[in-house]
Structures are given as structure tokens and as C-alpha cells.
Amino acid sequence: MHVGNRRILLPDERVVCRGPGGIILTTDGWISEIRTHRYEGITQLFRMIRLSQVQSIDFRNPAYRTYLRTLLLISLGIGTLCAVVLPFSWGLETLWVGFDPALCTLLEDGFWDCPEPTTPFYDALFYGALAPWLFGLIGIFVGFGKTLELRHERGTMKIKESSFSNRTLVYLFAWFWMLFALPESGSGLRGGMNLLVMILIIALIAYFLNSIKRELSLGEDQSKEIRDVTIDEFHRSLSSALGVSEDKESIRVVVPLGTVLGEEISEIKRKLEDHDVILSQIVVNYPDIFGVAIPWMGITSIGSSTEILLGHRLGQILPNPSKEIRTLANFRDQLKVKDPGMTSATLRSIDVIRTLRNSATHDMEASKEDYISALQRFVEIVEWHLSTPAKSILDT
């Protein structure tokens, strides 16, 4: 555990954005979420499904959801204002000291009957403060938020826009204020100051404890290294990564690059299929390089597959390779020194993939030609690895 280390991502991890519910889109083609822990050097990204598994995307949402959500947000604003102002309906003096007991009558049910509010707007304020509860009740049966559906090989993943927001929290605090500040017979805001001060002290203690917890990396990281976006922005980023339009009126089918490019990469696919029995044992998900839908995602997948392959080879050469060796540049440098079978052509292939991957990850775009070039280099590295068996330094 590192005190004060508040990074979520490992040095070699990159994400595009984080949408509703904490769903994350990574640059290496995964839909993930954060699973926080305190262990050094282990990813906190819990990878759920690969983009290559997504078959279609559906962002069709009934128009009434947008209207209801707009009405809910307006009612929250009005309800918050009404709840804050309502206790002032009898004037500042009554708010502070409470009702004069001489003006109040104790009823048989134990409640006090006190003077009517001095403001003519009391009823409007009261019903305005209650309005969000009505929409909240409707929300139990009718979802206000938009839903993004991803159909994949084993089912459907639904990413939902949350109906709860910071406005809801502010409204609830306003209701707490209203209930606390409403005057009673002989008791006003002044009589509850001790309770109010105690609540503020507890809130401050909780805030400082949470701050200490975060500094010790014991709680969820609030770092801004991951960009949070709305469900509409997440939909745009995901549509781009899947190579489909941003149309919200239809279901869009994802077509993988392996299908789109067909004849152009048929020879490359054939060469890899010839080595599939061995290669699939080393790089389990290597078919993803053909399963993604756009070139830049394909290049990042090729880069990841190359890292796994070279990491496997380095593990055959060194009995205990350093855990700090994670990137293509690290593997290249180590194999150049430790692997007697390394060739200058293989080093150039690694460099080409590394350069193309860095550019694709940074710009989130790449050409078809770049993708095919990276594929060709990957095939060259695979063929070199299989034709030149790694030799452990223990055997020399």
C-alpha cells in the first residue's frame, strides 16, 4: 500500500471515458469498471466484456423519459427553494424563538394549534416542497433516465442513466432544514442550536476521516485521471469505438474489421490460423485483433497481444522477470539484451507496432493502412517466436 498514492490506473493503462454507473471504456477495447483495492502493481480495472464481443448497440429511448426527467429537475429546483423558504412563513422572530405559547392551543391529539402563517404563499410553498416526491413516486414505476443497450454474445448489457443526482442531495438537505427549522410552541431555531452545532461537528469529523481514508488509499479513488461523461457522451464515444453511427432511432449492428477488410487481410489471417493451436495458448484473446470494428482499436489490441507474446518469451528466458516490465518498450529492451535469438528485423517490427499503438491510443484514430501494417508486423513477430525457440539463461 502506498500512502498518498491516489492513482487508479497503472502506468500502461489508458481509458477513453467513464459513463453512468462507473462503466469505463478502455483504449485497449474493454468495457470495465473500477474495483478498488490497496495492493500495489495490480490493476483496479475489472474488465467485463470486450468490444469485439458487442454485436449491436441500441440507444432508442421514448421521448417521454426526457420530458419526465426535465420536469423532475425543475421540480427539484422549485422544491429545494420552497423547503428553504417555508420556515420563514411566520416571520424571522417566530423562526428564531418559536410561537408564543399563549397564542397556541394544545389539541386532544397532542398537537399544538398555533397562529396561521403571515405569508399568503404558505400553501404554494408547502405543495412546491412536496412536488419532487410525486415525481419520485412516478419514477418507481417509470424510468426517467436513458438506457444504452449493448447486445453481446451471451446476453444484453444495459447502461442506465441515474435518476439520482447532486440536485436530489441538495433537495434532501433542504427538507432536513425545513423539518429542523419549522417553529413550534415556545421552541424556535434558537432552541435547536446545540443540535445543529453537534450535527455540523459530526459532519466535519466525517469529512476529515474520509479525507484521511483517501490519502491512505483505503477508499474509492476520486482522482480526475478518468474523464466522467454523460450517457450521451458515452454513447458517442462507444459508437465511435464500435465503428457505427450515432443514430438514436435504430439498432446498429457492429461489423468487425475482419469482415470489412475480408480479402485484404485473408493471407494474414491464414498465417495466424496455421499457428492457432500454439498461439491461442499464449495469447488467448488474440482473435480480438480481427474482432474489433475500427482500425485504432485494432492496433491497440495488436499491441496488447504483442506484449503478452513477448512477456511469455521473456518468462521462458528469465526465471523471475521483473514485474515492472509491462510495456512494449520494456520487453524490447530486455529481449535485445537477454535473448540471443533476437533479430534486427524483429526489433523493427516491435518498434513499428509500438509507434502505431502510441499514436492510436493518443489520437484515438488510425487508418486502415496502419492497421494492416501492424497486423503484418505481428505475424512476423509470431513467426519469429515460433521458429526461434527461447533459451533459458539457466541452460547456458
Strand order of the largest sheet: 1-2-3-4
Question: Given the structure, what is the number of helices?
Answer: 14
Low-pLDDT stretches are 1-5, 217-223
Largest sheet: 4 strands, antiparallel
Cα distance spanning the termini: 38 Å
Radius of gyration: 30 Å
Number of strands: 10
Q: Give the helices and strands as they follow along the chain.
A: EEEEEHHEEHEEHHHEHHHHHHHH
Q: Shape, please?
A: elongated
Strand content: 5-15%
- Approximately how much helix is present in the residues? 40-55%
| Global structural class | alpha+beta
Mean pLDDT: 84
Task: Write up this protein.
By secondary structure, the protein is of the alpha+beta class. Among the domains are: 63-144 and 162-215, no CATH class; 257-395. It is 50% helix and 11% strand. It has 14 helices and ten strands. The strands form three sheets. It has a four-stranded antiparallel sheet with strand order 1-2-3-4, covered by helices on one side. A four-stranded antiparallel sheet has the order 9-8-5-10, with helices on one face. A two-stranded antiparallel ribbon has the order 6-7. A hairpin with a 3-residue loop joins strand 2 and strand 3 (30-34). Helix 1 (63-85) packs antiparallel against helix 3 (122-141) and helix 13 packs antiparallel against helix 14. The longest helix has 23 residues, at 63-85. The two termini are 38 Å apart.
Helices and strands, with pairings:
Blueprint: E1 15-18, E2 24-26, E3 30-34, E4 45-50, E5 54-58, H1 63-85, H2 92-97, E6 105-106, E7 112-113, H3 122-141, E8 147-152, E9 155-160, H4 166-181, H5 193-215, H6 231-242, E10 251-253, H7 257-260, H8 266-274, H9 276-282, H10 288-291, H11 295-317, H12 328-338, H13 344-363, H14 368-387
Antiparallel strand pairs: 1-2, 2-3, 3-4, 5-8, 5-10, 6-7, 8-9
Helix pairs in contact: 1-3, 1-4, 11-12, 11-13, 11-14, 12-13, 13-14
